[in-house]
Amino acid sequence: MFEKLFEPIRIRGMEVNNRIVLPAMGTKMAAEDGNVTQQIIDYQVARVKGGCGLNLSEVCAVHAPSAPRKFLALHNDSYIPSHKAFCDAIHEAGGKCGVQLWQGSLAASMDPKARILVASDLHVHGNTIPAVDVETIEEVVACFGAAAKRAVKAGYDCVEFHCGHNYLPHSFLSPAFNHREDAYGGTFEKRCKFPLGCIRAIRESIPQDMPLLMRLDAQDDYLENGLTIEDVIAYCRLAKEAGVDVLDISRGNMITAGLKYEVPPIDIPKGFNVDNCARIRKETGMLCIAVGRINTPQQAEEILEQDKADMVVMGRAQLADANFCVKAKEGRLQDIVYCIGCDQGCYDGFTDPNVPFITCMRNPYLGKEAQDVLVPAQKPKRVLIAGGGIAGLEAACILKQRGHQPVVYEAGGELGGQFVTAGKAPRKTEMKEAALSYGEKAKRLGIPIHLNTPVDASLLTEGNWDEVILAIGAEPIHLSIPGAERENVYNSHDILNGKATASGHVAVIGGGLVGVETAEYLSEQGAAVTVIEMLDGVAKDLGALRKICVMESLYTHHIETIVSTSVKAVVENGVLVEKEGVEQVIPCDSVVMAVGARARNHEALTDACEKKQLPYHIIGDAKKARRALQAIAEAHAVARSL
Asked: Residue 308 — φ and ψ, nearest 5°?
């Protein structure tokens, strides 16, 4: 099964046992000073043991003055020991590893103490970041070479040069950013001088039999006068002459909506960049790695079979399931936990300063690999789980795997809860599939499941239970305003679940995630939709990359948004709203409320537990309506604790 995917490949003196690459993804697991930590080693080794062919370290700074804290570094010899520990651990586990050498340009601004290097003067928030001078350019080139020498000493099997995503080499290459008039700007050849200089410095600093990879963008997105794919192909031919062996074909940049392609969310089609990879591969004759929403073994195998790439990046696929590769190789496809492109734990977690390191909605123990051993229950318990949503099912599965005896009671007729509803919104089929997979796993584990069976006090008190988990979820909030009881007023959940329909002109009250997705859904059904939001913007509860996609969709569907506006009443032919003290009626035929959800009332259940002195735990939306990331993590933690 998947013969191409698990076929070895030799690149110069490095032989990799399959075609799967764990890319250089930022984790925030690096030490404050830039050293490799045991946490990074544990995280990477888990993927090697899970069957990955080639593991790349996350971005690694080469130039000390512009190296941000909490990012890996190799700009002096003091870093070699921690990198050697990393390489030794990867090799001991049977893998191959590479280091991604990097000068981050604007990305260094995550650390206010790091110097920001840009190709040309850049005006940001009323300030000007001056173009890097020639002396520093030459210094950075030398730093790439010196870092490569250290990588060799540390024991890496290959080196990757990052030349994409608006980082400094890409900024010199792209005419959208490079407006210099010296030897490093102007013509195509001059714009290539700096990145090619970096490549030569690296190639001269590593052994002849060590492969050199280069990550770059297939094209510039949303950038006026940016790189075309033809420009990229021409540059790749020069890079090949300079010593690059493998092209790692990515997309995206930091300063436009093209950012969505760097960590593409569920809204972006699977394999969106593969055809670009195939063209570059064909026209350069170079080995190429396909990148971008490749998250199933079937998809990866097809890409390789069709000669569109020589290897495939499967990054978030392995965040969601560290054993993705070995499960695919053994044909255990139903056991794979698939990434759905939610971006909640990886990208949103990376950019949120309050989150210590990246996480994953589908894998609560990402970054905690050293602790990721399910401890068998010392004393198996009968556990009643009220609610068959994702939190309840996650808890049930963990409990069963530990040896407990969970029983799930679901009030409705299907498993998955609000996750199923969310999966009915546009472009979110994978979320629905994930919701259903939780139920399928529970059934495979042999967990008793009772549908259409709401839990009440008698079920709690009459059963011989040792513990109770309340995961009864949340319910939509219905505004208490005049006219809210009218027949043409619906809630968003009923719309998405097909229990109600709204047509003609529809006013959606609430511009958060559920509101805007319901608006998209209705628009696709042919309705003319207006979204009314009391805050000063819509989609404020979405992560940055999903928000880009959703806002583009609102524009494409001609959905009107009215912000900083409160709804006072539903009237005969519309909704009465107030903005800046002025009232007006917005005409509509139907009204859909999408103003959030609140935890269902569980007082009767908790009272029953307390009267019987039955230990109970409230998890997921039953505790507080929130993101699935937090609900699943909480369920996982509670199930491990019993």
From this structure: -90, -15
Q: Which two tokens stand for residue 593?
A: 């409320």
Supply the DSSP symbol for 255: S
Output 562 or 109, whichever has higher pLDDT.
Answer: 562
Catalytic hit among 43, 156, 167, 235: 167
First-to-last C-alpha distance (Å) of the chain: 39
**Sign for the pseudo-dihedral over CA of 605, 607, 608, 612:** positive
Decide the pairing of beta strands 127-129 and 122-124. antiparallel
- If DSSP codes are grouped into helix, strand and coil, which group holds residue 582? strand
DSSP string covering 486-510: STTEEEHHHHHTTS----SEEEEE-
Residues 84 and 139 in one domain: yes
Print burial letters for 241-275: b (CB count within 10 Å at least 16), e (below 16). Answer: ebbbbbbbbbbbbeebbbbbbbbbbbbbeebebbe
* Three-class SS state of 274: helix
Answer with the one of 316, 349, 370 that is the final residue of a domain: 370
Query: At residue 66, what is the residue type?
Result: S
Q: Are residues 316 and 213 in the same domain?
A: yes
How crowded is the C-beta side of 481, counted as CA atoms within 13 Å?
Answer: 17
Is 1 inside a domain boundary? no
Beta strands in 200-261 (DSSP E): 212-217, 246-250
Euclidean distance between CA atoms 208 and 12, whole angstroms: 8
Instruction: For residues 503-517, give the mean pLDDT.
Output: 96
Report the alpha-carbon distance of residue 386 to residue 453 in Å, rounded. 9
Give yes or no for residue 353 having a pLDDT over 90: yes
**Residue pair 633/344 in contact by the 8 Å Cβ criterion:** no
What is the number of domains present in the chain?
3
For the question of residue 167 being annotated catalytic, the response is yes
- CB 518 within 8 Å of CB 602: no
Angle between helix 38-49 and 80-92 (nearest 10) = 20
CATH of the domain at 83: 3.20.20.70
Tell me the per-residue pLDDT of 373-389, one tens digit each, with 9 for 90 and over: 889 999 999 999 999 99
Do residues 588 and 502 touch, judged by C-beta distance below 8 A?
Answer: no
β-pair type (311-313, 287-290): parallel
At 32 the pLDDT is 97
- Of 6, 42, 44, 11, which is closest to residue 25 (Cα–Cα)? 44
Q: At what angle do helices 134-154 and 80-92 cross, to 10 degrees?
A: 40
